[in-house]
């Protein structure tokens, strides 16, 4: 989620939040039919869906690692994301590092059919 949308969802300017680029290895970004937001799926699911092996570049998702979210912020995000997603706890990697090196624990929303 881009910072401009995040701060609108949270209802504040995010002065206490820290934003850092991040890479989520072993996931693939996909268009979601009928939606204006992307979804992510694990590489194995994406390989089956697309019917081919994925390149290294395709096998990771760039995003934003956000620190400093309050419990109220997390609740606001849960309401915004609603039934579209499931929450995953993963390790993201800052850009420029080899996956698996200095990962940060993070939560990620993954598209889920319900």
Percent of residues in helices: 10-25%
Total DSSP helices: 3
Give the radius of gyration: 15 Å
Report the sheet with the most strands, covering strand number, pairing sense and barrel closure: 2 strands, antiparallel
Return the structural class. Answer: alpha+beta
Shape: elongated
The strand order across the widest sheet is 1-4
First-last Cα distance: 21 Å
Mean pLDDT: 76
CATH top level label = Alpha Beta
Q: Report the CATH topology name.
A: Hypothetical upf0131 protein ytfp
Q: CATH superfamily name?
A: Gamma-glutamyl cyclotransferase-like
Q: What portion of residues belong to β-strands?
A: 35-45%
The total number of structural domains is 1
- DSSP E strands, number: 6
Task: Describe the fold and architecture.
The protein is an alpha+beta fold and 114 residues long. It has a single domain, classed as Hypothetical upf0131 protein ytfp (Roll), CATH 3.10.490.10. It has helices at residues 3-10, 43-50, 71-81; strands at 18-25, 27-31, 38-42, 60-67, 85-92, 104-111. The chain has a two-stranded antiparallel sheet. β2 and β3 (38-42) form a beta hairpin. The two termini are 21 Å apart. The mean pLDDT is 76.
């Amino acid at each position: 989620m881009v910072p401009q949308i995040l701060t609108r969802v949270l209802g504040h300017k995010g002065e206490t939040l820290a934003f850092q680029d991040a890479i989520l290895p072993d996931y693939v970004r996909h268009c979601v039919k009928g939606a204006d937001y992307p979804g992510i799926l694990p590489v194995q699911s994406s390989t089956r869906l697309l019917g081919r092996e994925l390149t290294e570049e395709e096998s990771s998702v760039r995003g934003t690692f956000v620190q400093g979210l309050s419990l109220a912020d997390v609740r606001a995000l849960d309401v915004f994301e609603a039934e579209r997603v499931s929450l995953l706890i993963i390790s993201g990697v800052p850009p420029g590092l080899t996956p698996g090196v200095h990962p940060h624990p993070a939560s990620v929303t993954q598209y889920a059919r319900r």
